[in-house]
């Protein structure tokens, strides 16, 4: 019999609360400035922090902890992520992301896939293996270095791949295959090292079979998501549904995952099978107010975002300015157990102000949305070391927000 034939039925509202509780929302924020233990707890709960280069408000990997903890010292996360003794390391886990270093062995299957399948890019590296061999020797002799620090005739920016040099292109592919690792970033530029220069032996030497690794990764994704479909679980670590299917079956047999159905969750015209983690909290309510990174796990898989919150979200960075509807870097606004709006923010560090380029409410947004958002913006400005909040006035939420803030209204910058 199909495991979902007699599965527990969970309402869409409870599914939202389960998902948000699993992501760390709904718990009281600490009364003092969050410390290392609280920030590390967020990383452990999520399993990864996606990295992105856009710094118009704040780089994406800093935002999940701010959304869940409030203002914290970003240097705490820097210390975890940088240096040979850091608690975290960077790898292609979802997209480029910081992960706990003990997860490195679980991605051996992915490194093997890169080596086996290659690409036009990887094929180019294979045809120029002499450069890769030279880079390994150079790092072995001189220690960790940025690509820009390596002296070689091939280290000249040109051609495709963002104008990368042949050295940078080779290092980036070797980063995917695990021949080099990123030990830290300096001015957001990767510092490459040989694995043995950066990882302890107990991590470097641990071998995990692909099936075991995928089962553990699916279990961690299920814990972080609380309730999920097969597609949700596959997306968390950017695996395929074929890869996660046997892992889900094993975890159901072990009692880690429990089959459920959620009315309205569909795959085409059919109900979408879903599973809840056995340890998932089922709160009766969620008390939360947060601005979310576009790359926060709550919203990064857009089909799940629409399924959970009926919230259609696309980041408009790559949309020509005349065609943007909500703004260059709009952040989803979470109020309690729903995503009810979006706010386009810019940290104008030169002027010392947080610019609200636009603010929009969803049709179902509660009447107190502006009142709940205003203190978030003040906290965000303080966290960024900015003195004031300035509204451009664009968006249907802006008039109410200006009244709540008593803020000046300027023009977009």
Automatic annotation (TrEMBL):
Name of the protein in its database record: Crosslink repair DNA glycosylase YcaQ family protein
Species in which this protein is naturally found: Agromyces sp. G08B096
PANTHER family: CYTOPLASMIC PROTEIN
Taxonomy, superkingdom: Bacteria
